[in-house]
Write a structure and sequence with these properties.
transmembrane, about 450 residues, Growth Hormone, Chain: A, mainly alpha
């Protein structure tokens, strides 16, 4: 009897392997993603748009930054299809490889000169699109790896581990940039130093692949296979039968996305922009460029290495409160907990200018508050979104919701915020209102969605 049972008993992943594999993969993915995000502010405007005005170069760089978000829903459909038909493991390995290769190749791109005037930005667009495809499939797979292998009353806790990849990847990427800007001259950094983080990603990809190749499929997916419940077209089934949780999940993630990209990409641009026209004029003249006083928009005027350090400090709070959010989401329920956190995001948006007006100290407090809220809202998402969908379309459903939200939340966030800052002549009131509106939409979605803490993931099959 025991021998027969042993033969048919499904294989399980150990707890340590699940937690490490879910976190290391997303750390690699987010490291690659943030390396690009940081370079899009510090390097790419001058490297790929040398003939544009300062603000137009930044806007062009952020437009390419947004290309990845347009690719992410397509990535969620492609990787979700194979994740729900063939399994989580192989899909996770494929998404990691795609992200690693495309990021590594960005490090080889030449400046936009001569033949490369058009080809270099075009190649950047294509590689950025590939990054978006990869990230479109990565997050959901990592979230399922953690939550489908977790005990029922620990799913939100396990789910915080893939979420930790975001702050950890951010910190590693930006520490590299801070170190490079500190120990290299500006000429060295612009010529070759900025490429090092992109090449370094190859090391992290190897580590991530080594861990993920040792995984076995989750019990939830093994049961889908055993019951012959694999669907022919996961995306079609998701849209036809589960469009309500897909729509709800999209807006549940909205405030999280807007908050994060305001706290990282926008604040880095705004925080390091010259605080006075005189400083901006001197900087333009030092680069041999004409200064357009009419186009000048004041920022905080904080040195870039200093502000990057401030961001890293803020992201430490992001990581801490991502971990804190798991037990709280288990205790109070995902929905109730996220309602309170989103209300906090709304208040933060309404008081934005108190933090991000003149003054480095106020900005540091604002970064800490914003990233604390970010950790609290981001942490439970790896449990909440997958719990909305049955096992045979869970990869596709959670991925589509997560990445559709990236299109309406993350992709335009930096671009819209810069436009609002520019339109306000340096006043960031509009940026805070933008965040507050996103929080209201998320609150509506949360009020219209049930709590999922009691869902039996293993037996929830369509």
């Amino acid at each position: 009897m025991s021998q027969s049972t042993a033969k048919v008993a499904p294989k399980e992943n150990t707890r340590g392997r699940v937690l490490f594999a879910s976190m290391i993969g997303t750390t690699v993915e987010f490291f690659d993603f943030y390396a690009y995000a940081t370079a899009s502010v510090l390097v790419f405007p001058a490297l790929f748009f040398p003939n544009a005005s300062n603000i137009n170069a930044i806007l062009s760089s952020f437009a390419i930054f947004g290309v990845a978000f347009l690719a992410r829903p397509l990535g969620s459909i492609i990787f979700g299809h194979y994740g729900d038909k063939l399994g989580r493991k192989g899909t996770l390995v494929a998404s990691l490889l795609l992200m690693g290769i495309s990021t590594f190749l960005i490090g080889f791109l030449p400046p936009a000169q001569g033949f490369w005037t058009v080809m270099a930005p075009l190649a950047l667009v294509l590689l950025r699109f590939a990054q978006g495809l990869a990230l479109g499939g990565e997050w959901s797979g990592a979230a399922l790896l953690a939550t489908e292998n977790a005990p029922k009353n620990r799913r939100a806790v396990y789910g915080t581990f893939p979420q930790l990849g975001a702050p950890v990847g951010f910190i590693i990427a930006n520490l590299l940039f801070v170190g490079l800007q500190t120990y290299l001259t500006q000429e060295q950094f612009m010529a070759w130093g900025w490429r090092i983080p992109f090449f370094f990603s190859a090391v992290m990809v190897v580590i991530g692949l080594w861990v993920r190749l040792k995984l076995v499929e989750s019990l939830s997916f093994q049961k889908v296979l055993a019951q012959n419940k694999v669907v022919k077209s996961p995306f079609a089934v998701t849209i036809k039968r589960h469009w309500r949780p897909t729509l709800a999940g999209t807006f549940i993630m909205l405030a999280t996305y807007v908050l994060f990209y305001l706290m990282t990409s926008f604040t880095l641009t705004y925080g390091t922009a010259p605080a006075s026209a005189e400083v901006a004029r001197a900087a333009a003249e030092a680069k041999g460029k004409a200064f357009d006083a009419a186009a000048f928009v004041p920022g905080l005027g904080i040195d870039r290495p200093v502000f990057l350090t401030m961001l890293i400090i803020g992201v430490v709070f992001f990581g801490i409160f991502t971990v804190v959010s798991g037990p709280l989401a288990e205790k109070f329920g995902r929905r109730k907990f996220l309602i309170w956190v989103t209300a906090g995001i709304l208040v933060f948006g309404a008081t934005w200018t108190l933090f991000f007006g003149p003054g480095q100290a106020a900005a540091m407090v604002g970064l800490i508050v914003g990233f604390t809220l970010m950790g609290l809202t981001f942490g439970p998402m790896a449990a909440y979104l997958p719990e909305l969908f049955p096992s045979n379309v869970r990869y596709t459903g959670s991925a589509v919701a997560y990445n559709l939200s990236s299109v309406i939340g993350a992709a335009p966030a930096s671009f819209v915020a810069i436009a609002l800052w520019n339109a306000g002549g340096g006043n960031t009131l509009g940026v805070g209102i933008y965040l507050a509106v996103a929080a209201v939409l998320t609150l509506v979605a949360l009020f219209l969605t049930r709590d999922t803490s009691d869902v039996d993931l293993e037996n929830f099959v369509d």
